[in-house]
């Protein structure tokens, strides 16, 4: 082990991570880690706490207990929000803005590398929808716009909540290609499923939430 090489450290480490609401445990305590080039599939039935876990890891909710480290360093919510790219159930697009304007807005917020945003839309199957307001998109098209936004972010850690939901077969293949590329470039992906969708075609470890609340 070469301690000066950050790639040797897990990208994400959770120790004793727990979340309670009104003193009722929602998940945890959980111990898991995710290394560069890995995918972790969070499994659990409806209400098991998958979305809550991702929102904690994305810095959107405060954990009730435990610690999260990014690249070996303990982090607070701000660091988590900056160090990860989150694709949630609610895509958070600006409904009145066209799909292209939404990407321009996201690009300005993220401060990412210049990118061909028309091409980014085409790559997620939204060619011809550049001027369509996001509120007029179908659920699957909304998810595709979220995937285009995800691709523009350079965060090494992707947090994907039910990424296959609402997508047709071509969309599912698109998600799988994006996950494969993220893992191949040394990023890491944590994704949830309640079991109705296939896992991505990369080696995945699993973390089961539910009554046992233990990593698999
Ligand atoms: N805003 C909220 N206020 C109160 N309780 C909530 C809230 N959001 C979620 N919960 C509760 O927290 C628990 C975990 O919810 P969560 O959404 O994390 O589950 P999930 O595993 O993602 O479920 P699903 O597969 O149905 O999306 C559930 O019991 C849910 O009722």
From TrEMBL:
<dbReference type="GO" id="GO:0016887">
    <property type="term" value="F:ATP hydrolysis activity"/>
</dbReference>
<keyword id="KW-0547">Nucleotide-binding</keyword>
<keyword id="KW-0472">Membrane</keyword>
<dbReference type="InterPro" id="IPR003439">
    <property type="entry name" value="ABC_transporter-like_ATP-bd"/>
</dbReference>
<dbReference type="GO" id="GO:0022857">
    <property type="term" value="F:transmembrane transporter activity"/>
</dbReference>
<protein>
    <recommendedName>
        <fullName>ABC transporter domain-containing protein</fullName>
    </recommendedName>
</protein>
<keyword id="KW-0813">Transport</keyword>
<keyword id="KW-1278">Translocase</keyword>
<feature type="domain" description="ABC transporter">
    <location>
        <begin position="12"/>
        <end position="209"/>
    </location>
</feature>
<dbReference type="InterPro" id="IPR005895">
    <property type="entry name" value="ABC_transptr_haem_export_CcmA"/>
</dbReference>
<keyword id="KW-0067">ATP-binding</keyword>
<dbReference type="GO" id="GO:0005524">
    <property type="term" value="F:ATP binding"/>
</dbReference>
<dbReference type="InterPro" id="IPR003593">
    <property type="entry name" value="AAA+_ATPase"/>
</dbReference>
<dbReference type="Pfam" id="PF00005">
    <property type="entry name" value="ABC_tran"/>
</dbReference>
<dbReference type="GO" id="GO:0017004">
    <property type="term" value="P:cytochrome complex assembly"/>
</dbReference>
<keyword id="KW-0201">Cytochrome c-type biogenesis</keyword>
<dbReference type="InterPro" id="IPR027417">
    <property type="entry name" value="P-loop_NTPase"/>
</dbReference>
